Amino acid sequence: MSGTANAMQELFARAASLLLGNEVDVAGDHDAKLLLQALEYGGESSNRLDSVSANRAHLLIAASRFARVFELAAPDAPGLISFGAQFDPALADSVHDGSPMVGVSGVGLTLQEAFQGCIGEGIEYLSQLQTGTDLLLKPGVDDWAGKLGPNALELAAALSERRIQPERALSWCRATKLTDGGEVWLPADICLRRPPAQRDFAPPFPLSIGSAAGPSPDAAALHGLLELIERDAAGLWWRGGQLARSIPPQHEAAIVAEELLQKLRHGVATPRRTWLLDITTDIGVPCVAAVSCRADGSGFAFGLAARPALEVAVRSAILEMCQLELADAVVATKRSGGSDNALNAQDRIHLQRAAINADRCRLLHPLAEYAAHPPLRATEASVMFRLIVQRLENLGIETFCLDLTRQRFAVPVVRVIAPGLQLEPSEIVTARLQDTIMRTGGGATYTRGVPLI
């Protein structure tokens, strides 16, 4: 996919129109048909528009509104397909006029997978942005204290102490408590991306964690919940010092990893060394860290994933690892002029992490033992979501959900919040992380405090 930004925007719009069945608008549009075929969306319209086609059309419409959508080549993984995109936050609401452009990306083995990951991430971000129609509340303490459990109350108290103007009351968003379906209120600044001038406090963790777009609300909610579990596992491993375990070489996950890496690394003269770590926690949902480095142990990169099945987690973690390798290559390009002036804060974290020698860091080498993964006996996203929520409840971890789907994008977006889980990165240290550090001595023993993300 190449061409000027305006030409690509128009092409995405015409392809969406064709997919929606508007033949009059795009009659004989060969390029739009080719785009649909390349994305495996099909090039023929029909009188009946199903939910899958509608979702795909909405992704194309969103892409047509972005400032840029482009492909990237991954030098260490030629088999990886990667899309990047940039957009103006004002697409969500004029209250964000003047905000800097935002960049997102997506990867996969097919154009469809990479495109949907990239544009979906953009819609997720835009849907989180506060709009003029969002209802925020300013309740008194007695209004919400009785409806939140201890983890949520502790988080709310910690966030209240971070107020930019201590005399100003917090704003709150309505959310649903998943264990009983009841309505609760949570601090607005961990629910929505608000304009800086309107924030009560600076969010202590990225608001992207636990938020997801999907083809259905159930799929989006499940993806968001799995991301929370993934980051909790990463925090207990990297900052908590909880050593990873091995994946049995005869397990289907190990076979999937080998076949996938052959596809991704094919054609590279000196492929990076790659291995897997099982960082599954007491929750039991499979969590994997895929790790790679150069032959001498330098250039450490990683990918994280929590999925209902170990082999699916392995696949996702490896793709994310290759995405990070690509990000590191972009940072190297920025530095090629001999100056670090072009680097942003995230770029500098990349450099710190990549400087770790993977051969010498104990956290990057698994124990010779295997984790337990109690099966999630379900195939539907809604059922798996409920089963995982129940597991969390059994551990005393409450979960909350917000539907952030915006009519202007028409793609389901859900935010899941679980205050008892440790986020990574986060300025807030939960009891789970504190307990792990007390037991192990902490990950800084091995990392010297270098952040993972």
Furnish the topology, listing elements before pairings.
Layout: H1 5-19, H2 23-26, H3 30-38, H4 51-65, E1 68-72, E2 81-87, E3 102-108, H5 111-128, H6 141-144, H7 150-160, E4 172-177, E5 183-187, E6 211-213, H8 217-238, H9 252-265, E7 273-278, E8 287-293, E9 301-306, H10 310-335, H11 345-354, H12 381-394, E10 400-403, E11 413-417, H13 431-440, H14 444-447
InterPro entries: YcaO-like_dom (IPR003776)
Pfam family, one: YcaO
Domain YcaO: 106-453
Order of strands, widest sheet: 5-4-10-11-6
What's the β-strand tally?
11
The backbone outline, from C-alpha atoms, is globular
Q: Which stretches are low in confidence, meaning pLDDT under 50 for 5 or more residues running?
A: none
What percentage of amino acids are in beta strands? 5-15%
Helix content: 25-40%
Structural class: alpha+beta
Distance between the termini: 30 Å
Rg measurement, Å: 22 Å
Give average pLDDT, whole number: 92
Summarize the biggest pleated sheet.
Answer: 5 strands, antiparallel
Count of runs of 4 or more consecutive helical residues: 14
Order of helices and strands: HHHHEEEHHHEEEHHEEEHHHEEHH
Organism: Bradyrhizobium archetypum
Protein name: YcaO-like family protein
Pfam family, one: YcaO
InterPro entries: YcaO-like_dom (IPR003776)
